[in-house]
Amino acid sequence: MQLPLPAIDALARGDLETANRHSPVALTRHFSVDRLAVWKIRSLQLAAAPDDAGWVTGALIDGASGQAVGCAGFHGPPDAVGMVELGYSVDPVFRRSGYARAALELLLARAAGEPDVRTVRATISPDNEASRHLVLQYGFEENGSQWDEEDGPEIIFEVAAGNQSAQHQ
What span, in angstroms and rounded, lies between the C-alpha atoms of 42 and 7? Predict the structure, then answer.
């Protein structure tokens, strides 16, 4: 679910109370504390490029309860070569319940349905074995590494859009 810009701007300031006044769903502490750097980036991005709003990080909602359980989205629209980078984060309270898999599947389906998207990228910390294992089940292949200013070392994984299928292991 896309969050309104005032909610994103409040999250970028670490102001969960104001973010919740603007959000259609109650956001947890995970949104304001654990993901502060993401919201700062998205707030600046949307100020400069409002049309990116449909692509960037939003709330991951449990369909049954309607509760926000994490964040998911892309870093932005496809670049000049058709690449989008996805990201997801599940509130620690809700982990190990299939939400990361559901987020990944939703993002991959969105990418597959977009004619301008050719490649989907995920960047994962070398010590995040759970995310690494998850993306490998969907056909992602390791394609190098990089240093991220916020997250430190990351391994780059990529898959052709629309060319992934879960090989549940």
Answer: 11
Distance of alpha carbon 22 from alpha carbon 3, whole angstroms: 8
The predicted pLDDT at position 169 comes to: 43
pLDDT of 167 over the 70 cut: no
Structure tokens at 39: 């919201």
Q: Quick one: angle between helices 129-136 and 99-112, nearest 10?
A: 40
Angle between helix 36-48 and 5-12 (nearest 10): 130
pTM metric for this prediction = 0.90
Summarize pLDDT for 50-69 with one digit per residue, the tens: 999 999 999 999 989 999 99
Token pair listed for 83: 């690449």
Question: What value does the CA radius of gyration of the chain take, rounded to a whole number of Å?
Answer: 15
Q: Are strands 83-90 and 152-160 parallel, antiparallel or unpaired?
A: unpaired
Strand order in the sheet with 58-61: 58-61, 68-74, 83-90, 119-124, 152-160, 141-148
